[in-house]
Design brief:
four-stranded antiparallel sheet; alpha+beta; about 60 residues
Length: about 60
């Protein structure tokens, strides 16, 4: 899985500022590699596949 990252956006959620970043992949997203990629890049990173089949969506605290 070779990601190309796209600049993240910021949004507010229950008083905590969260950011997110999409990784555009060359192969279909797989759950565990997506989770691992996000948590290795961002200490508070949580990764899920989607919204497109070749994307990994990371959510993390902007204050990291």
């Amino acid at each position: 899985m070779r990601p190309r990252s796209r600049a993240g956006d910021k949004f507010m959620s229950q008083g905590q500022e969260l950011c997110h970043e999409y990784f555009q992949l060359t192969a279909p997203c797989e759950k565990q590699p997506c989770i691992d990629m996000c948590s290795s890049k961002y200490k508070t990173g949580k990764g899920v596949c989607g919204p497109a089949v070749h994307q990994c969506f990371c959510t993390f605290s902007c204050t990291v």
